[in-house]
Amino acid sequence: MKRLFTLVFLFSISIAFVQAQESETEKEIKKLSMDKWQWMADKDVAKLEKLFDDKAKFVHMSGSWKKDREMEIIETGSIWYKNAEVHDTAIEISGNTAVVWNRITLTAFVRGNDVENEFTVTEVYQKQGDDWKMLVFTFSSVRDTHEIEH
């Protein structure tokens, strides 16, 4: 009986460990999302140009627009995404689509001032050939106590 209990316990632990592991695709998407924050801080429009799908949509506190406008905003620094402190990330993958939720504190330079806001950012990516392309990038204003449900 003791042996059976030990086997069941070890099996349960191994199942929980496997379920807790991120898939390789999830790791790839998470890295891409984190890299994106740095590219935005660096105003690296060349890398962002490759990441953002030509039909991508962007939703911010002050409005929504398409890729060309987002690229202009980043390049000119009219919004400078100086730092995104990521507190939590959740990723769900379905086929060739990945959805990422990042709970962040964003420090940005907007209209001549540094501002800090709490957001949950939703990012939708689609696998196109060998590359992931961002289709949707939406900022939702939240309280700093907000938690992403995993």
UniProtKB/TrEMBL annotation:
Keyword Signal tagged: yes
Domain of life according to the entry: Bacteria
Source organism phylogeny: Bacteria, Pseudomonadati, Bacteroidota, Cytophagia, Cytophagales
Transmembrane segments: none
SUPFAM superfamilies in alphabetical order: NTF2-like (SSF54427)
Protein's UniProt keywords contain Membrane: no
Pfam families: DUF4440
Signal peptide: 1-20
Protein name in UniProt: Nuclear transport factor 2 family protein
InterPro entries xrefs: DUF4440, NTF2-like_dom_sf
Domain DUF4440, first and last residues per copy: 31-134
Keywords on record: Signal
